Amino acid sequence: MVMLMVFPSSHRLSHPCICGAVSCCRMCDEELNPAAVAQPVEDVHGDGRWMAQHTRFVQECKDGEPDVLFVGDSMFQLMEQYEVWKEFFSPLHALNFSIAGDTTCNVLWRLQNGELENIGPKVVVLWVGTNNYEHTAEQVAGGILAIAQLLASHLPKAKIVVLGLLPRGEHPNPLRVKNAAVNGFLHSWLPRLGQTQLLDVGREFVHSDGTIIPRHMFDFLHLTSTGYLTVAKPLSDLLLQILDETPEERQASLV
Questions:
Q1: Distances in Å between the alpha carbon of 1 and those of 45, 84, 176, 247?
Q2: In angstroms, rounded to a whole number, what is the distance separating the alpha carbons of residues 171 and 217?
Q3: Catalytic residue IDs
Q4: What is the mean pLDDT of each run of 10 residues along the chain (255 residues)?
Q5: CA 56, 195, 41 angle in degrees (round to 5)?
Q6: CA–CA separation, 28 vs 148, rounded Å?
Q7: CB burial class (10 A; 0-12, 13-18, 19+) of residue 175?
Q8: What single DSSP character describes residue 136?
Q9: I need a labelling partner for 186 at 20 to 30 A (CA). Which of 6, 54, 145, 194 fits?
Q10: DSSP string of 2-52, one letter each residue
Q11: How far apart, in whole angstroms, are the C-alpha atoms of residue 150 and residue 162?
Q12: pTM attached to this predicted model
């Protein structure tokens, strides 16, 4: 079952923080939440790959005019290597600003340092948080909310779609419990932001006995072609709905 939570704009905040709840505000505050502190990736390998990718994204902002912007970690970065990207998302005039291994902190830094300049996407799709190993579930959710708040502030006309974190590991384990808890916080907190939707497809990746479906996740974390298709179909339907584009119009754009 695909869970889609749509929140109307009537839930917009008048409070400057992402929500009025004291606990959530603490998690959105970078002084109190380490997952909401913007920081680049340390170049431990000495080849400058991460910064080079960021620089390329900043340049793409000057050259492209995307309707849809994807932001996240390897889950989105690797998707471009599969047919689903060409079939579902390239026709939507999409840019993909995702880097493997990124945490909420790294995405925050990239967005604050040029990756939102000179563009005005209609939709931003955010998928990050599973690499925040050092942070609690509440902190990770707060980091994701901090990114959503930055997006809403910098791109006030854009809709924001947040993908729930997927289960990971072949069998139930603490990281899977943590990711589920992150999604629970997001479900409670996102309504206060407005113009934000949470798409959670995690149930599609788990057998009834609690084990991960191998044909969807080849290493019980990263997705196969069928795994990406499981994500892409509901996400594409949602994006088309937001963009108010019919399947016929989309097919015409492919031609």
A1: 41, 20, 18, 23
A2: 12
A3: 74, 219, 222
A4: 40 39 56 93 95 97 93 97 96 96 98 96 98 98 97 95 97 97 96 90 95 96 97 96 68 47
A5: 30
A6: 10
A7: middle
A8: -
A9: 54
A10: -EEEE--GGG--SSSSS-S-HHHHHHH-TTT-GGG---PPP-TTSS-HHHH
A11: 13
A12: 0.86
> Does residue 216 contact residue 180 with C-beta atoms inside 8 Å?
no
Q: What is the pLDDT of residue 131?
A: 97
Which pLDDT value is given to residue 252?
A: 54
Structure tokens, 109: 């830094």
Count the Cβ atoms, other than its own, within 10 Å of residue 58: 17
Residue 101 phi/psi, 5° resolution?
90, -10
Q: Which two tokens stand for residue 120?
A: 């005005």
Return the pLDDT at 7.
36
The sign of the torsion formed by the CA atoms of 23, 134, 114, 89 equals negative
At position 98, the amino acid (one-letter code) is S
- Here the tokens at position 2 are 């695909």
User: Please, how many CA atoms are within 13 Å of residue 142, restricted to the half-sphere of its CB?
Assistant: 24
